[in-house]
Write a structure and sequence with these properties.
This protein is mainly α and about 100 residues long. The chain has one domain. Helices cover about 65% and strands about 0% of the residues.
Amino acid sequence: MNIDEIVTKLVGAVSPVGDSGVDETRFHNLMSLTALVDCLLLDIRNASSYAGRPEASMNKIGLYARRYLSEVHYQTGFAAAREKELKPAVLVERDDHEP
């Protein structure tokens, strides 16, 4: 079993199926998954601070983390959004039910 399979077993499926009961559970699973991703990205960001260190092993970790974050930034479309001077979509939870 790989790490992806382990996380899926712990968090649960996140893809909607069109059944409101199932999809509500999957929405909560998605919220858990994104909370985990936030924690992991923070760890990676902290590791990126070691880029440029004189110790080769620390610099290696820092550079890898920095490159990874740059790739995530690029793949998520934020770079393209900046080029077009568009802001990426942000999910905002509302308490009211106004359209």
